[in-house]
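Page 37, top half.
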Amino acid sequence: MNVLVFLIPAAIALGLVGLYGLFWSLKSGQYEDLEGAAYRILQDDDIEKK
């Protein structure tokens, strides 16, 4: 039972870190262009023309 004194605050702290990361990614615009990556994978920019 003594281990719960350490595990419960650690779980809450990790949850808050994950929640902060979610809000940071929303604020910085990580989810603005969801369709752009789907179209970018179809482009052949990395192939050199000879």
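Page 37, bottom half:
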Amino acid sequence: MLISNAYAQAAGGTDPTGGLMGLLPLILMFVVLWFLMIRPQMKRAKEHKSMVEALSKGDEVVTQGGIAGRIAEVGDNFLHIEVAPNTNVVVQKQAVSTVLPKGTLKSL
């Protein structure tokens, strides 16, 4: 009566890419994040794990706390590091940050 009927009309401008262009910036950000942050971190973790597994008696190491010494005994999870004659410190294997070249401690 007072209100006329409203009929649906065909959509004028549909997106021919199906919304892919809306996801493109998100995908691009993930790819950049992967190559700049995640991948290098995984590479460093893999290198550290292989270094820790290769530790042996007599290696000269520096821990994450800055303690430098020679490995006196290797256990499953812990190392005995000789920091001075007859002075051993027990640290976790994962706490070793660097393996020094042989003879480095004599020059210190």
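Margin note: The beta strands are 60-63, 68-74, 78-84, 87-92, 96-100.
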